[in-house]
Specification:
six-stranded mixed beta barrel; 9 helices; seven-stranded antiparallel beta sheet; 321 residues; globular; single chain; alpha+beta; binds pyridoxal-5'-phosphate
Length: 321
């Protein structure tokens, strides 16, 4: 017997609790799990869930602004597309999921909310290695709206650092399946913090710009807007930028975006449901053009937020009051 085992043998075994008491705090909100609506603090999954153990999950995030969902249909399309590709099944159709999301937001009372729908592979009762034995689990929740950029960063523009991590290639994980494979993004984020930047831009396998932790990247040069075509999540905000550019007659295209092109752009902005359209005014410490939020970024941002009131783009949440 080694020393550790000997000490353990002399100690009485700890008691097994009959339920879990969670010492952590969570934001105010409402979750849907296993047919029940719960406060966020009660929304828990098993440690044996494949979503947790293997990142075997897909999700989507839509936001509510001023009491209205923004482009919910597009988020539902992407979510159901991911489910199909991952061969997951949930006991709700699109209308059923939309109703659950509306209920989570209305019950939370949040007028500005970050609303997530997700499905994990789930767990099998026998801890089988076969994913077909797992019972897929659908969940949803609504918490207060959150942004990639805080108020100061929105006002001055984000300072980003170009990471030396490579975004997981599309041949490995289809980026159209919105997923939690975030280790490259999170490591890029820490690298950015170490270099006094607010966030990271991650490159693709060919050394071109890919995306960042929770956002797509755009460059503006001589009035033309450009964003990477491949190896990135087809963001709904990215798609919205194309729609807004079409309306405003601003030329916009998806294609390779080189690092030199990004550094020498007239304007750089990022897009995410978590914050909308946000300017980036420094890259690796150097100013983007004059280091100010550019006119195209401003025009697109203003129209983006205006569209949140437009019934063609948004849907009212039926709050109780
Ligand atoms: C990796 C990644 N890229 C881009 C985005 C932006 O997508 P959307 O505009 O749909 O929020 C996200 C959003 O979470 C993301 O996780």
């Amino acid at each position: 017997m080694d020393q550790t085992t000997a000490t353990q043998a002399s100690k009485p075994l700890p008691a097994v609790s009959d339920r879990h008491v969670d010492p952590h705090a969570y934001p105010e909100g409402i979750a849907f799990l296993d047919g029940q609506y719960l406060p966020m603090s009660q929304a828990k999954i098993s440690v044996l869930d494949w979503g947790f153990l293997h990142s075997d999950a897909t999700y989507d995030t839509v936001h509510v602004w001023d009491g209205r969902f923004f482009r919910l249909d597009l988020h539902l399309d992407r979510f159901f597309g991911g489910l199909e590709k991952l061969r997951m099944a949930i006991p709700f159709d699109r209308d059923g999921v939309a109703e659950i999301l509306h209920n989570c937001v209305a019950l939370s009372g949040h007028r500005a909310a970050y609303v997530e729908m997700l499905c994990t592979r789930g767990a099998s009762p026998t801890f089988s290695r076969d994913p077909r034995q797992a019972i897929n689990r659908f969940m949803a929740f609504a918490v207060p709206f959150g942004s990639v950029a805080n108020a100061e960063q929105l006002q001055r523009g984000l300072h980003v650092a170009i990471s030396d991590k490579v975004r997981i290639p599309p041949a490995s994980i289809d980026p159209a399946i919105k997923n939690y494979h975030w280790l490259d993004l999170v490591r890029g984020l820490y690298e950015a913090y170490d270099r006094n930047a607010d966030s990271a831009v991650i490159l693709d396998f060919n050394g071109n710009v890919a995306e960042g932790p929770g956002f797509n990247v755009f460059a503006v040069k001589a009035g033309r807007v450009r964003t990477p075509a491949l190896g990135v999540l087809p963001g709904i905000t990215r798609r919205t930028v194309f729609d807004l550019c079409a309306e405003l007659n601003i030329p916009a295209e998806a294609g390779d975006l080189g690092v030199t092109e990004l550094r020498s752009a007239d304007e750089v902005f990022i897009t995410s449901t978590a914050g909308g359209i946000m300017a980036a005014t420094r890259i690796d410490g150097a100013l983007v053009a004059e280091g100010k939020i550019g006119p195209i970024t401003r025009t697109l941002t203003d129209l983006y937020w205006k569209k949140h009131q437009d019934p063609a783009w948004s849907l009212a949440v039926p709050y109780a009051d």
